[in-house]
Amino acid sequence: MSLAEPRALAPPSIETLFDAGVTGAVFSDSGLLAAGLGDGAIQLIGPSGATVPVQAHDSAALCLALDLDGRGFVTGGDDGRLVRTAEDGSMRN
Length: 93
Prior knowledge:
Layout: E1 22-27, E2 33-37, E3 41-45, E4 51-55, E5 61-66, E6 72-77, E7 82-86, E8 91-92
Antiparallel strand pairs: 1-2, 2-3, 3-4, 5-6, 6-7, 7-8
């Protein structure tokens, strides 16, 4: 497969503004976008553009990755915590 052959259709163009700098972004297998922010929040953005803010950390979300199941996100924060955020916004340490 070459880079010119996309594996999936790109989501529709959506513009979103945040109150803090973006430290990471990743799509889930279902097309949900998670953006980790410098204020510790995780913004979950659906294909329609609807957003759900989740306060995952007391300070900056330093890293963001897709969970092994492809339906959740894992963040590491400047507060020393590792947090899993599900697509519905629920969290666990």
